[in-house]
Design a protein that fits this description.
Helices cover 27% and strands 30% of the residues. It has one helix at residues 16-33; strands at residues 4-9, 43-48, 53-56, 62-65.
Amino acid sequence: MATRKVAILMFDDVEVLDFAGFFEVFSVTSELNKGDSLPLGMVNCIICAIVGGEFYQSSSLKQTIS
């Protein structure tokens, strides 16, 4: 099965779970499917932004994307 590509978009005031939750789910899915022929296959997950730089999440945590 082909690898799926998923991009998670970052923006100011994003909630941590809005990106970290999805990233974790896709990462675990890929890890569990290594070597298996499960229907979900592998997932290549990236975090991106329309414009690179610093983003402050709702909890004031700073994320930098280049």
